[in-house]
Amino acid sequence: MNFEFTEEQAMIRATMRDFAEKEIAPLASENDRNEHFPADIVAKMGAMGFLGINLPARYGGGDGDYMSYCIMLEELAKADVGLAAVVSAHLSLAGKSILNWGNEKQKQEFLPRLARGEILGCLASTEPNVGSDVASIETSATLHGEEWVLNGNKIWITNGGVAGVVVVIAQTDRSQGSKGITAFLLEPGTPGFSTRDIHGKLGVRSSNTAELILQDCRLPRENMLGPLGKGMSVALSAFDSARLGVAARSVGGAQACLEAAIAYAQTRRQFGKLIGGFQLIQELIADMTVEIEAARFLIYRAATKKDGGEPATLEVSMAKYYASEIALRAANNALQIHGSYGYSDEFPMARILRDVRVSTILEGTSQIHKLIIGRAMTGINAFV
Ligand SMILES: Cc1cc2nc3c(=O)[nH]c(=O)nc-3n(C[C@H](O)[C@H](O)[C@H](O)COP(=O)(O)OP(=O)(O)OC[C@H]3O[C@@H](n4cnc5c(N)ncnc54)[C@H](O)[C@@H]3O)c2cc1C
C-alpha cells in the first residue's frame, strides 16, 4: 500500500493545520473550561468545506476520500479533540448514513445543508439501558396510519442538542431481534421530541452531548431511512466510518502531546541538564513516537481499504482499538514529562488526556473491538 499523500490530501492537511492553529487552538482551553460549543468556529469550518469533505460533490460535498477525512480529523484534533468529535459524528454517523441509505429525496433534502454546515447531524443509538448491545435497544417505532410514532430515550448523543437532523435507531418489531430494528430521520421541532444537554463530562467538553427524549414523537411515514428492519445495518455501516474518525482524532490528540513533550524536554533543565537528555525521558518519547506512527499506519491502511471499496471492518477495529489505547498512554506520558506543569491547564496535556479518555469507550469499547478482532481471527462469534 502506498501512503503518499496526493496533492489534494496535502492541501487539506495544510489548510486544516493552518486554520486549527490560528483559530481553534487559542480557544481550546477556554472552551473546555466553560463547556462551550463554539458554533461560530463550526460555521467557519462549514464555509471552508470541511463539514462535507467526504460527501459527493453532487450533494455539495468535497468528493474527498476516507484518507482525506482522517488527515483532516487528525489535524483538527491536534488543536481540539472535542471539535474533531463534532465533525466526525456529523460526517460519519449522519452524513454517510443518509448518503448510503437515504432515497434521492432524503439525500437532496439533507446532504447539501449538512455539507455546507447549515445544519449539523448526529446518530442516536445508545440508550440509558443499552450501549454495546445495540440489538437490544428499547426505543420503539410503531406505524399508525401514515405516521411512525416513536417512544424512548437516547443518551450520550454527540451533537444531539444542536443537530438539524438526527438518525434515530429504533425497534420496529421486537420479536425479530436485530432484524426488527429500523432507522429514521428526525428534525428538531417535531412534536414529541426534546433534548437535554449533558454537562459535567470528563472531556470533549467543546462538543455538545445530549439526551434525546421521544414521547409519542410522530414522524411522516417517508422519514424511514433505508428499508424496514435494516436499522442495524445502517448503524453498523455508520460505526465503520465513525470508528475511523475516533482513531484519527485519537492520533491527533496523541501527536499534540508528543510535540509538546519534545518541546518541553528540549528546554526544561534538572540536575544541570536538559531533561530530554535523560534516557528515561527519551524512553517515554520513543514509546510515544513508535506507537503514534503505528496507529497512524493502521488508520491509513483501513482508510485505503475503504477507499478501494473493500470491506474493512477488521482493519477499522484494529485502528480504533489501538489508536484509542495509545492516545491515552501518549497523553499520560506527555503529562509525566511535564511534571507538575502538566497537571495544570497551562499546557494542553491534561485536557487532551481527558479528551482522549472517551475514545476507548465510544464507537465500541476496547473490549468490543477485541471481540470483533478475535471473531475475525478465530471465525467464532462471541456475540451470539
Ligand atoms: C462523549 C460521548 C459521546 C457519545 N456519542 C454517541 C453518539 O453520538 N451516538 C450514540 O449512539 N452513542 C454515543 N455515545 C455512547 C457510547 O457509544 C456508548 O457509551 C458505548 O457504546 C458503550 O456503551 P455503554 O456506555 O452503555 O457501556 P456498556 O455497553 O454498558 O458496557 C459497560 C462495560 O462492559 C463492557 N462490555 C459490554 N459488553 C461486553 C462483552 N460482550 N464482553 C466484554 N465486555 C463487555 C464494556 O466494554 C464496558 O467496559 C457517546 C458516549 C460518550 C461518553
How much strand content do the residues show? 5-15%
Number of domains: 3
SS-based class: alpha+beta
Profile the largest sheet: 4 strands, mixed
Task: Tell me the strand order in the biggest sheet.
Answer: 1-4-5-8
CATH H-level superfamily title of the largest domain = Butyryl-CoA Dehydrogenase, subunit A, domain 3
Global Rg = 21 Å
How many E-type strands?
A: 10
CATH fold label of the largest domain = Butyryl-CoA Dehydrogenase, subunit A, domain 3
Name the bound molecules: flavin-adenine dinucleotide
Order of helices and strands: HHHHHEEEEEEEEHEEHHHH
Assembly classification: single chain
Q: Runs with pLDDT <50, length 5+?
A: none
- Shape verdict: globular
Note the total helix count.
10
Overview of this protein structure:
By secondary structure, this protein is α+β, with helices and mostly antiparallel strands. It folds into 3 domains: 114 residues, Butyryl-Coa Dehydrogenase, subunit A, domain 1, CATH 1.10.540.10; 110 residues, Butyryl-CoA Dehydrogenase, subunit A, domain 2, CATH 2.40.110; 146 residues, Butyryl-CoA Dehydrogenase, subunit A, domain 3, CATH 1.20.140. The chain has 10 helices and 10 strands. The radius of gyration is 21 Å and the shape is globular. The chain starts with 6 loop residues before the first helix and ends in a 6-residue tail after the last helix. The model has no long low-confidence stretch (mean pLDDT 97).
